[in-house]
Design goal:
The chain has an eleven-stranded mixed sheet with strand order 6-3-7-8-9-10-11-15-14-13-12, with helices on both faces. Strands 2-1-5-4 form a four-stranded mixed sheet. 37% of the residues lie in helices and 22% in strands. 45% of the residues are buried. The longest helix is centred in the N-terminal third of the chain and has 22 residues. The protein is globular, with a radius of gyration of 23 Å. It has 504 residues and is an alpha/beta fold. A hairpin with a 4-residue loop joins strand 14 and strand 15. It starts with a helix and ends with a helix.
Length: 504
């Protein structure tokens, strides 16, 4: 450890001990979060309507306040944007994280209160560094620069009262100036709105810097890495940034991209650490390098509830449960109540707990992004692991993919169509399809049952995509950069048809 990092390291020690106590205290911590949220918002319009003053525990909270999605809260958020206070949260909220659905252009404006910034997003960043330093005590983290690849929405005024940008832009706009001493690229570059111009500017601004860490979404970071290698004429990123030691990543599953990163960063000293930071809040951090699960962070001004996926799809009023009542190996939809003014909000993500006390989980997909056309219940987690296994078996490398069911009407059967953009093609598409099929059978018993003797589901069909198909589709939709991505799984053929029409 260098002297600068060694000097700063003790600032993280107390927090490391707090995190270690989460396993024993999660129920107490979480119910304290709920109590604080209700107390803070009791005089808001929302708090008075649902009489927060009289809610004394979780059961009353669950029974009195309905589940919500963005459309339910949108009228209240619009009033907040126009400068009203005491609506969903007591304060006037000046910043909003702008996000759009992956398959449509309608924007969402998620309130970013001062409380959610400090207690959640920035605290999550601090804890990520804290856990990294705990796991790798010889790090030189603070002696070099860290590259943060932000999104594509530059901060802009919604009106005289409020501003918006994607989450990374809002975070950078409000960041403590001291952090800028170790961060690159320049603020004016990272907040550029035009994605391709920004990539070029980042390359010029950072290729000669001494970088120790990179942070961003794997797919878009890969675009930047390739641009840097193309500009410098180098074959690996180790040659450009010899002191690079960690990639903090999130937003999409990393496993399909891991082979490409290991090829471009072949040194044995490179580390990878996943975080789960969304527009609505910072939820989890990978605390153990040997375990790809994420630790649920319970003291970020967020109260969590979970709904079993089978109940979410079968009931108009599904029952949620608190963290202490969840089980391992079951898919749950995530519900959050936050210091950002979101009340019992379905964020659309699904997770599965891998351990309890401490609560650790993996992200399995989206409540709307899965395939269950034939009872196979294929989740994104299955798809990512299946693609990874098929690549290992066939020597292929995958850049991007999407899949959807195809019904064969005259037979009463169907199959999954996979549109895959390969970085490196397998020797045989048929062998890749067989390897993917076998991997999915091993990973998902429902898929295996539907594939038995082709009774309901035939073997998957692999359609190679032309180079840059997914990039071109995102560009056409105005969704380059940031958290934008093509859904990996869809339960209908609408999206894949649009992509196939461009696959020429």
């Amino acid at each position: 450890m260098d002297i600068i990092t060694k000097t700063i390291a003790p600032l993280f020690s107390a927090r490391q001990r707090q995190i270690e106590s989460f396993g024993k205290q999660i129920a107490d911590i979480q119910h304290k979060q709920l109590s604080q949220l209700l107390q803070t918002a009791k005089n808001t319009e929302w708090g008075k309507h649902y009489n927060f003053r009289d809610i004394t525990g979780y059961n009353a909270f669950r029974e009195r306040i309905p589940l919500s999605v963005y459309e339910d809260l949108q009228p209240f958020i619009e009033r907040m944007i126009n400068g009203e206070k005491n609506i969903l949260w007591p304060s006037v909220v000046k910043w909003y994280a702008k996000s759009s659905g992956t398959t449509n252009d309608r924007s969402k404006y998620i309130p970013v209160t001062c409380e959610i910034l400090k207690r959640c997003h920035y605290k999550g960043g601090f804890d990520t560094v804290s856990l990294y330093m705990h796991n790798y005590p010889e790090t030189r983290f603070f002696s070099k620069k860290g590259l943060i690849l932000g999104g594509s929405h530059t901060p802009s005024a919604i009106n005289e009262k409020a501003h918006c940008g994607d989450l990374s832009a809002v975070l950078l706009q409000n960041l403590n100036p001291l952090v800028n001493l170790i961060r690159v690229p320049k603020k004016e570059i990272i907040l550029m709105g035009e994605w391709e111009a920004k990539i070029n500017a980042i390359v010029e601004n950072t290729r000669n810097k001494d970088i120790v860490s990179i942070s961003g979404i794997p797919s878009w970071m890969l675009t930047l890495i390739k641009a840097i290698l193309n500009k410098t004429g180098k074959e690996t990123l180790d040659e450009v940034w010899p002191n690079l030691e960690v990639f903090f990543h999130g937003g999409v599953g990393f496993e399909p991209y891991r082979p490409q990163y290991e090829k471009l960063l072949p040194s044995g000293k490179m580390h990878y650490m996943e975080t789960y930071n969304a527009s609505e809040g910072f939820f989890g951090i990978q605390d153990d390098p040997a375990d790809k699960s994420l630790l649920l962070m319970p003291d970020y001004g967020i109260f969590y509830e979970f709904i079993p996926m089978n109940e979410l799809s079968a009931s108009d009023n599904p029952k949620s449960i608190p963290p202490e009542d969840v089980k391992t190996n079951e898919n749950y939809a995530v519900v959050i109540t936050t210091a950002g003014g979101l009340w019992r909000y379905l964020i659309g993500d699904t997770i599965r707990f891998t351990s309890l006390f401490p609560h650790k989980f993996i992200i399995t997909g989206r409540t709307k992004h899965f395939i269950n056309a034939f009872g196979e219940e294929l989740m994104i987690d299955n798809a990512e692991k299946g693609i990874h296994k098929a690549c290992l078996e066939t020597g292929a490398t995958v850049r991007a993919y999407t899949a959807a069911p195809l019904f064969i009407l005259d037979s009463g059967k169907g199959r999954h169509q996979w549109l895959i953009e390969f970085e490196k093609l397998p020797e045989s598409i048929d062998k890749f399809a067989a390897a993917l099929d076998n991997a999915l059978k091993q990973l998902n018993s429902d898929y295996e049952a539907k594939r038995y003797k082709d009774i309901a589901l035939q073997k998957p069909e692999i359609i190679p995509a032309r180079e840059n198909l997914f990039y071109d589709w995102l560009k056409k939709e105005g969704k380059l950069g940031g958290q934008h991505k093509v859904p990996c799984l869809s339960n209908n053929h609408d999206l894949i048809n649009k992509l196939l029409a461009m696959n020429v």
